[in-house]
Amino acid sequence: MTSSLDYKYVYYLLDLQHSHFTFDYTYKAHPSVIIDRYQIYDMPLPEQRRIAEILDAADEAIRQTERLIAKLKAVRDGLLHDLLTRGLDEHGRLRDPQTHPEQFKDSPLGRIPTEWEVSRVNEICILGRGRVISQVDLDQNPGPYPVYSSQSKDEGVFGYLNTFDFDGEYVTWTTDGAYAGTVFYRCGRFSCTNVCGTLQAKSHDLSMRYLASALSTRTGKYVSYVGNPKLMNSVMAKIPVPLPSYSEQKAIAAVLDTHDTRIRAEEAGLVKLRHVKRGLMDDLLTGKVRVQV
Predict the structure, then answer these.
(1) How big, in percent rounded to 5, are the helix, strand and coil portions of the chain?
(2) Residue ranges in the chain assigned as alpha helix (H)
(3) Angle formed by the axes of helices 45-85 and 208-216, to 10°?
(4) Superfamily of structural domain 117-242
(5) Are 166 and 186 in contact (CB under 8 A)?
(6) Collapsing DSSP states into helix, strand and coil, what is residue 66?
(7) What span, in angstroms and rounded, lies between the C-alpha atoms of 113 and 87?
(8) How confident is the model at residue 14 (pLDDT cuts 50, 70, 90)?
(9) How far apart are CA 209 and CA 203, in angstroms?
(10) How far apart are CA 211 and CA 168, in angstroms?
């Protein structure tokens, strides 16, 4: 590296250019790629350094937000465990098994509050399945209703149709593939593909938001990893879940919703920060916008 180039500037410049390239593995490995495809622009060293400082600041903001999201998720996971084993008393506080052991009992799931029951999924829900929906279906029948698939990105949204198969509150889960056992709460009109299972409450005293949270901690241990990972309806049907009163289910779900809302807000902020950084890279590294030093 010559004295007329700043290391950080060159790193960001090559990273930007690399993001626009598509390589196969053979071509990517060839040394001529560096010579033929990448360019170092002639820019004064002080301006290079200032650009690197600006992009470093953007990166630090991204890292801080990522750390915050990781911390919030860890807190949420710990809270979820406590809520599903201790629950909330009539004052909205976590029950304390140390101070009040008489408020707890043994169950197939371990110690749980005495008022709670343990039920299998098929005792409280009607199990269903999605159907085959192709990309061609989405292209030929565009509309406002989401179609969910086996992926976990973007809440599992595969695309949108002009018709829907389900209407109301449901829990869905991925039955096949890398994300088998991943659970989602759904509300409204939607469809899902054949690699999604569906749960519909048999009665009005079951909070589907609560059920989604409760199942999210349990499905992983029931996924079969013989060949392609699977969690089929017949297995889901037998999974036991802790079941508080309906009012306590709603209270637990409300607490978790508050934390989830905060996490989603930070994740949306992270997306914006990444877009801002990308815009800065496009403008500053190409010279479209010059930096005053």
Answers:
(1) 45, 20, 35
(2) 7-19, 25-29, 32-37, 45-85, 121-124, 135-140, 208-216, 233-236, 246-284
(3) 100
(4) DNA methylase specificity domains (3.90.220.20)
(5) yes
(6) helix
(7) 7
(8) confident
(9) 14
(10) 15
- What is the rounded distance in angstroms from the CA atom of residue 98 to the CA atom of residue 9? 57
Q: Give the sign of the dihedral formed by CA 13, CA 19, CA 23, CA 28.
A: positive
Residue type, 275: H
The model's pLDDT over 259-271, given as tens digits with 9 standing for 90+, comes to: 999 999 999 999 9
Note the pLDDT tens digit of each residue in 157-203: 999 999 999 999 999 999 999 999 999 999 999 999 999 999 999 99
pTM confidence score:
0.85
Q: In what order do the strands lie in the sheet with 166-174?
A: 125-129, 196-201, 166-174, 183-192, 145-148, 157-161
C-alpha atoms less than 13 angstroms from C-alpha of 161 in its C-beta half-sphere:
19
Domain ranges of the chain: 117-242
Nearest to 180 by CA among 222, 234, 123: 222
Q: What is the pLDDT of residue 28?
A: 55
Q: Which residues contact 117 (CB under 8 A, 6 or more apart)?
A: 242, 243
Q: For residue 218, count other CB atoms closer than 10 A to its CB.
A: 17
User: How many helices and strands, by DSSP H and E, does the chain display?
Assistant: 9, 10
